[in-house]
Amino acid sequence: LELTQEEQFQARIDADVRIEPKDWMPDAYRKTLIRQISQHAHSELVGMLPEGNWITRAPSLKRKSILLSKVQDEAGHGLYLYSAAETLGASRDQMLADLHSGKAKYSSIFNYPTLSWADMGTVGWLVDGAAILNQVPLCRTSYGPYARAMVRVCKEESFHQRQGFEIMQTLCEGAPEQKAMAQEALNRWWWPTLMMFGPKDADSPNTAQSMNWRIKRFTNDELRQKFVDMMVPQAEFLGLTVPDPNLKWNEAKSGYDFGEVDWEEFWNVVKGNGMCNKDRLGARVKAHEEGAWVREAALAHAAKRKQRTEQ
Ligand code: ACO
Description:
The chain is an all-alpha fold. The chain contains 13 helices and 2 strands. It has a two-stranded antiparallel sheet with strand order 1-2. The chain binds acetyl coenzyme *A.
């Protein structure tokens, strides 16, 4: 029995053989990966902005240097991810152009404002916590370069999460005003963080095929459930209240039942109408334009070096 190219490909996926850049792959597999990896890269880049806002306002030199390195790590994550997308034939200039024109998506979470220092704790604890849950399984994603990039990203991401939790712990053990600040930040970030996992499985056009190709190892709802189950005890440990009146332990499923995400808000943010979408894109475009001289200088330097070695 002769297998078609597509059947051979699926057989390799089913046997957990990694797909590498020069291997044959269906066009739709390539497209899905370029879509997901480039969106992921954009999220890392835009994700620098809400925290960048607090570098100059961090409460101590120590906090400032930690935050500065965390934001630099995120730039690095973006670069690994763009490189992984390039191995599929995507052009970095085109990916960036699509981000800057508003055509490409990036994570909804980064369109919310960071209003207090406690937001730095909450972003590290909740947002990076959600990112890790989503990304640890991606270390086993079927496309080799993406999976390998995720290994280092996850190591750095777990450090980010710990530092966020430590900020929260410091605030929660501090003055009543500090604890109130931590609670207020949790109230604002809880629901947007649940949205990071994407639409419900029933409304997710890409999940079934991506699971079949082992690009995704868990569905959006599975990861959201894991997240709630992981975070509720941590909030209790901190003495904070999760802002969900429907949150309740369900012994039968050995997990929490929780309230419904406001999906209208989610799609509104994804479509570009969230609180900070315009600010974030504006800041990105400005940084790109102001960095033009660096790219030109790097190209001129490379050309000179090439000329020198050819002589
Ligand atoms: N924000 C913005 N867009 C989203 C979000 C979100 N939180 N969740 C889903 N979407 C988009 C999807 O990109 C998709 O859009 P498209 O088809 O136009 O490309 C659409 O909504 C429908 O969603 P799904 O069918 O569920 O899409 P998918 O299977 O790609 O699942 C998910 C979405 C879970 C985000 C997946 O792409 C993924 O795991 N990506 C890698 C991780 C990542 O990007 N993390 C970024 C945030 S973490 C960080 O950067 C620190």
